[in-house]
Design goal:
This is SUKH superfamily protein. It comes from Umezawaea tangerina. With 176 residues, the protein is of the alpha+beta class. The chain is 27% helix and 22% strand. The chain is built from 4 helices and 8 strands. The strands form 2 sheets. The protein has a 6-stranded antiparallel beta sheet with strand order 1-2-3-5-6-7. Strands 4-8 form a two-stranded antiparallel ribbon. The two termini are 26 Å apart.
Length: 176
C-alpha cells in the first residue's frame, strides 16, 4: 500500500468519524498540466482535487491539493509574485494552505522538497544569482511530497494535532 493510499484511508476514517470535512473530486480525463514527484502524480492520477478542513481551537485550518485549473490560478495569483530583482519561479504551488498561503515544490532540485509559502513571506531568490533573499528560507519545510502528505493526514486526523496546526494559513510558521 502506498503512502498516498494510507493517507487517504486515514483522512477517510477521520471524515467518517466527523472530525474533518473531506471533499475528493474525480480526476478529469485530460492529461495533467504538470505531474511532479511520483506520489503527487499518483494522487492526481486518481483524484482531481482533495480538500480537507477541520474546526479546531476556534479556527478552521485547511489544505487543498488542487486540480489543473486551481493549480494554474494558485501559481499565477499567489506563488509567482513579481518583485524587482527577485523571483519565485523556482516554486510550483500544488496545494492551498488557507487563502494566503500555498504548499510548493522547489523544482530546481530533483527530489522536489516542499515549502510553505505565504503571501507576506514569498521565500524569493535573487533573479540574477539564484541565491536566496533570506538564506534561512533555503531549508525546506518537508523533504518530499510523501513527508508533507503524511504530516497533513496525521495532523488533520489526530485528536491532538501539532502546535502549528491551528495557525495553518498564517505567516511565520515552521514545521518540525
Amino acid at each position: 500500500m502506498s503512502h498516498v493510499s494510507e493517507g487517504l484511508e486515514l483522512l477517510g476514517r477521520a471524515a467518517t468519524e466527523g472530525l474533518i470535512d473531506l471533499v475528493v473530486t474525480e480526476r478529469a480525463q485530460q492529461a495533467p498540466a504538470w505531474t511532479g514527484p511520483a506520489d503527487y502524480a499518483e494522487l492526481l492520477a486518481v483524484h482531481g482535487s482533495l480538500s480537507c478542513h477541520r474546526d479546531y481551537a476556534g479556527r478552521t485550518p485547511r489544505f487543498a491539493v488542487l486540480d489543473e485549473k486551481g493549480f494554474v490560478a494558485l501559481n499565477r495569483d499567489l506563488v509567482h509574485q513579481q518583485r524587482f530583482g527577485l523571483s519565485t519561479d523556482h516554486f510550483v504551488g500544488f496545494a492551498e494552505a488557507g487563502d494566503d498561503a500555498a504548499w510548493c515544490f522547489d523544482v530546481t532540485t530533483p527530489d522536489y522538497p516542499v515549502y510553505y509559502v505565504h503571501r507576506e513571506e514569498p521565500r524569493s531568490r535573487h533573479r540574477n544569482t539564484g541565491e536566496w533573499e533570506n538564506p534561512a528560507d533555503s531549508t525546506p519545510d518537508f523533504p518530499s511530497f510523501t513527508a508533507w502528505f503524511t504530516a497533513m493526514c496525521e495532523a488533520f486526523s489526530s485528536p491532538h494535532p501539532p502546535r502549528w496546526f491551528p495557525y495553518l494559513g498564517e505567516p511565520g510558521l515552521s514545521f518540525p
